[in-house]
Amino acid sequence: MTDTSEFHAQISQLPPPDRTAFLFDFDGTLVDIAPTPDSVVVPDTLKASLRALRGRVGGALGVISGRAIDQIDHFLDDLPYAVAGEHGIAVRHAPGAAIERADLPVMPAAWLEEADAVAARVPGVLVERKRAGFVLHFRAVPAKGDALRAMAERWVGSAPGFHIQAAKMAWEIRPAGVDKGHALNAVMASAPFAGRLPVFVGDDVTDDDAIAQARALGGVGFRLPEDFADPTAFRGFLARLAASGEGASWGV
Ligand SMILES: O=P(O)(O)OC[C@H]1O[C@H](O[C@H]2O[C@H](CO)[C@@H](O)[C@H](O)[C@H]2O)[C@H](O)[C@@H](O)[C@@H]1O
After folding, report:
1. Residue 32: what pLDDT?
2. Do 147 and 28 belong together in one domain?
3. Which structural domain range is residue 161 located in?
4. Is residue 30 within 8 Å of 231, Cβ to Cβ?
5. Active site includes 32?
6. How far is the CA of 67 from the centre of ligand 1 (A)?
7. 7: closest CA among 239, 246, 214, 206?
8. pLDDT tens, 48-72?
9. Is 8 within the bounds of a domain?
10. Does ipTM surpass 0.90 in this model?
11. Pathway, per UniProt (predicted)?
């Protein structure tokens, strides 16, 4: 939990509730990093905070994640109004709406086949599939990180239009051209986000594009661990914010 002066310094940077749109990264921001993608835990207290905050900002609360949208649905159900997945390649503007996908090059199938073969051979290497690409996870075998990176560099060096997204103990191979800054812009263009100021919070290199874009639009970008020590601290902030002030004020 942030102390009172830090909390007030943070909320004093926020636009008033009727002008705020919240957009949050998922892994490492809303939830703690876990040994595998499937094993993250979403505390009930976080769900309660997100529900309350979504009400305070007229529904304008979304998630911008590297994960596929169905993964965010699995963990958060319909709590976020809008969800952008795969680092902005897929965007769903409202619960139940169609998913818009960026028109990007299709990845050579041979790359995924080679990745699967490596994962079958090397215990601890995990391949996470997404529609436009895949992630090579090595959290369970950190010593394999360099070799996996070299393999991924060989792939992307052989075909233009793809790049390696550095992640936490993982390399993601995906089409280039869309990032979380594009995702933030896309979400902010529709109701109930349009006309509000984005407050984006993230923790990783992929989030820096959205932080920069939130600031470029006149909003706020916070980053972990610089602004919140870890997801526990950030969840504490959200819980306190949800309970703070009323109507047109956050309580400052
Ligand atoms: O943009 P995010 O919502 O932060 O998603 C980024 C990636 O997060 C996931 O991987 C990371 O978190 C896992 C669970 O804590 C962890 O096991 C893994 O080592 C991390 O790299 C997710 O699996 C990826 O698809 C996301 O791109």
Report:
1. 98
2. no
3. 109-175
4. yes
5. no
6. 7
7. 239
8. 999 999 999 999 999 999 999 999 9
9. no
10. yes
11. Glycan biosynthesis; trehalose biosynthesis
